[in-house]
Amino acid sequence: MKTRFLILVFLASTLIVNAQKYISKTGHIWFYSHTAIEDIEAHNNQAASILDAATGDIQFSLLIRSFEFKIALMQEHFNVNYMESETYPKASFKGKITNLDKINFKTDGSYDALVEGDLTIHGVTKHVSIPGKIIIKNGLPTVQSKFMVISEDYKIVIPDLVKEKIAKEIEVTVDISYQAN
Known about the structure:
alpha+beta; 10 strands
């Protein structure tokens, strides 16, 4: 009888711990470049992410080739000439919510969040601090953020011929809805 009770307590605690982790395999991340000559936008709806509400750990990973452009030639140039996606197939982020005590994952609402961690793009990793929002609805979180990425910081070389068409700072938007793990 005592053994059964201990097993039930262990299983219950495992379920509670697992309930604090959320996952997404269809996170939406897109970028936007604006210049006087041209606007460029591409969307990726295949970002994988895990969010641990207990620790504040958060990770994203996505395939560069999964970005979709309106113009196929832009997509090809992006993958071959700028991002070298054969050599650097993934972008990722691994970090932590630094103001976790301000977010109540059990109460619906919108919470300001600050995330710090390592952003890896084009094989280069930079420590970044990114503001965002965590929206809790029906007990499930959605993470939203908008931040700027400077292509030179990640050793992305833009040829002189098209430098006027591509912004030096690219706006990146994150919108990921999670499911309980």
